[in-house]
Specification:
- With 338 residues, the chain is α/β, with parallel strands linked by helices.
- It has a domain at 2-186 and 237-264 and 305-317: Rossmann fold, CATH 3.40.50.
- Helix content is 41%, strand content 18%.
- A seven-stranded parallel sheet has the order 3-2-1-4-5-6-11, sandwiched between helices. The protein has a two-stranded parallel sheet with strand order 7-10. Strands 8-13 form a two-stranded parallel ribbon.
- Helix 6 (149-168) links the parallel strand 5 and strand 6 (175-181).
- It binds nicotinamide-adenine-dinucleotide and UDP-4-deoxy-4-formamido-beta-L-arabinopyranose.
- UDP-4-deoxy-4-formamido-beta-L-arabinopyranose (WQD) binds next to helix 7 and strand 8.
């Protein structure tokens, strides 16, 4: 039996496909490459030594997606990564985000029901919490008004999945693990796959590695006057391979009904600490300057990941130094390829 991985050529999807194949799962990838490259699929095959079944499909296209289920014939569960993820772009083009992220999830649920597939792992985000009142934040924290249309799509999809479950429960026993990712960083230790920002990166670590490699002049630290120990914002950064492993754990221990899980390390790290850790781990200087605050930034957030540990039997194991070394190796390989 196979796992359908939507968005499997993307950053998290490609690492998860590797982890699934290495754990003995049969993987079927669908992607339309709107934010990824086809060669990443070859890299997954290179790392695992197994061929990957693939369909170039937009998940919003119901008929074509349904044909994938029929053609593959053995899809038993789905991990749904396919979505647009740029916060800034979502502010500019909210409709595009709503259509792709919410529309795609609705189509997927419909097609799954039609084909009698009832297990779904969904990519959500800690963005659903906004700036929570209590840190570390656990899964009982309320959704705060979304900071962006992107964040809104994650909240809406969680609600749609929950509603879908209450409609189908009993008949098909729909089960879904909703995974709320904190900040994935790093790359596969082989250096063959990693984050592939198209254009100027929004996220901290790809911007940092591009700066160190000379592609950008300087990393701007967005504010050092926040009420945190060193004045810069705090996040919960986890190694991408730990995050990938969490999906394997979620499939193996899928809850009954719909249940959210925080995926983070449980530790908060500041922007300035990431810069210092990068230098220590790679011995590379990071040209940086302090700039103004970024509009809408959350001051500090980190996860209480204890539910995932208890119920999914998963815990982040790799260090942030390892993640930064792996991110740097990937950046150097990317530079060599261009
Ligand atoms: P990514 O852009 O690297 O991967 C997403 C993949 O989905 C890409 O390969 C893209 O081409 C594909 N895709 C998008 N829309 C599609 C569609 N309609 N049909 C088919 N394929 C489509 O992003 P990522 O970082 O790997 O994120 C994966 C998921 O995790 C997303 O749902 C994202 O919102 C969520 N998430 C990411 C982060 C993060 O920091 N990277 C944090 C929290 C949540
Ligand atoms: C991390 C920290 C910045 C770049 C975003 C999305 C969120 C989620 C994860 C998917 C912050 C600082 C960054 C730079 C900086 N994605 N920074 N200079 O803010 O946690 O969230 O990605 O769901 O929805 O909003 O991640 O990597 O952008 O920033 O100082 O050039 O690095 O201020 O404190 P963030 P990030």
């Amino acid at each position: 039996m196979a796992v359908l991985v939507t968005g499997g050529a993307g950053y998290i999807g490609s690492h998860t496909s590797v982890a699934l194949i290495e754990a003995g799962f049969e993987v079927v990838v669908v992607d339309n490459f709107c934010n990824s490259k086809r060669y990443i699929l070859d890299r997954i095959e290179q790392i695992t030594g197994k061929s990957v079944r693939f369909y170039k499909v937009n998940v919003c296209d119901e008929n074509v997606l349904s044909k994938v289920f029929s053609d593959a014939g053995d899809i038993e569960s789905v991990i749904h990564f396919a979505a647009l993820k740029s916060v800034g772009e979502s502010v500019e083009f909210p409709e595009k985000y709503i259509k792709n992220n919410i529309g795609g999830t609705e189509v997927l649920l419909k097609v799954m029901a039609h084909h009698g597939v009832s297990k779904l792992v969904f990519s959500s985000s800690c963005t659903v919490y906004g700036q929570p009142e209590t840190i570390p934040v656990d899964e009982s924290a309320p959704f705060l008004p979304a900071e962006s249309p992107y964040g809104f799509t994650k909240q809406a999809c969680e609600e749609i999945i929950t509603k879908h479950s209450s409609h189908t429960n009993g008949s098909e026993g729909f089960r879904s693990a909703i995974l709320r990712y904190f900040n994935p960083i790093g790359a596969h230790p082989s250096g063959l796959i990693g984050e592939l920002p198209l254009g100027i990166p929004n996220n901290l670590v790809p911007f940092l590695t591009q700066t160190v490699s000379g592609l950008r002049d300087s990393l701007i630290v967005f504010g050092d006057d926040y009420p945190t120990p060193d004045g810069s914002c705090i996040r919960d950064y986890l190694h991408i391979c730990d995050l990938a492993d969490a999906h394997v754990a979620a499939l193996k221990n899928i809850p009954s009904g719909v249940r959210p899980y925080n995926l983070g390390t449980g530790k908060g790290v500041s922007v300035l600490e990431i810069i210092a850790d990068f230098k220590k781990a790679t011995l590379m200087e990071v040209p940086y300057e302090i700039g103004p605050r970024r509009k809408g930034d959350i001051v500090q957030i980190w996860a209480d990941p204890s539910r995932a540990e208890k119920e999914l039997k998963w815990k982040a194991l790799r260090s942030k130094e390892e993640a930064l070394i792996d991110a740097w190796r990937w950046q150097q390989n990317l530079n060599g390829a261009t």
